[in-house]
Amino acid sequence: MSRQTDVLVLGGAGVDTIVHVPELPLPFADSYMIRPGIETRAGQSGDFVSLGLHALGLRTHHLDMIGDDHEGDLVRALHRDRGIPLTAVPAPGGTKRAVNLVGPDGRRLSLYDATRSRETDRFDEPAVRQLAGVARHAHVVITQPCALALPVLREAGVTISTDLHNWDGADPYHEAFALQADLVFLSATDLDDPERTLRNIAARGRARTVVATAGADGSYLLYDGELTHTPAVTPPAPVVDSNGAGDAFAAAFLLGTLNGEHPRRCALYGTVAGAYACTVPSTRTGAIGREELLARVAEVEKDRTP
């Protein structure tokens, strides 16, 4: 069967409103004067993964529920302007949106509008089956209603990855994603014992590869029962925003995976891409290209070779 798409991305389309604050946590005050201003732009997790994959030269198709509203227009325009195919299923509750408070050091606090998703939201199963049937791989974001599409993807025969973000290792909502994916990403932010969580995911689910990103501490890779650590790399410019770093990591890791690289090298791909993403202002949606990624990876490997 001809595979017309390298990666089918499910979920995670939406709009963020960026608010730069003087510090996080933000002390209570009656008001703040915000500079350089408040800006709304398209781009949430699924959008960023799609942009990252596309910039790396992978044929990418994005599927999600999007509203007939201004936010939906922004999402559709982002994909159209970047040349990324988008299948937009009508979302009765409207397009997903969030407010991101960004501190001077690039850290962020995200406030998600939980009213935009409904329990009755569903993807059209034949559409999912058709898109998965021509894809090499599916990356599934943990937004509603992506969990319901996991069995369809499995039946279609594609490999599956997911990002659990700041899962605490216990919230049951994330378990469907964690246990049905072949490749699992998550953040170590809320984990007391990252290794225990990684091994628990691998023992209970399908994943041979589980990765925990840890910001300035690099990342931890569990592959076939062996845990390894990948140190962070120096970003190519000042760090201005951590938003999208995990998505960039996942996109670059998937590039390596689909090219047959060993997971340890895939982790280095992700580390370099994530560091680059931290240098992109939160009001923009930029991603590292394949040529620059491979050049930077080669430099790091040379520096780290004894």
From TrEMBL:
Entry protein name: Adenosine kinase
Organism the protein comes from: Streptomyces silvae
Annotated GO MF terms: kinase activity
InterPro entries, A to Z: Carboh/pur_kinase_PfkB_CS, PfkB_dom, Ribokinase-like
CDD domains: adenosine_kinase
Keywords per UniProt: Kinase, Transferase
Record's keyword annotation contains Kinase: yes
Record domain Carbohydrate kinase PfkB: where: 46-285
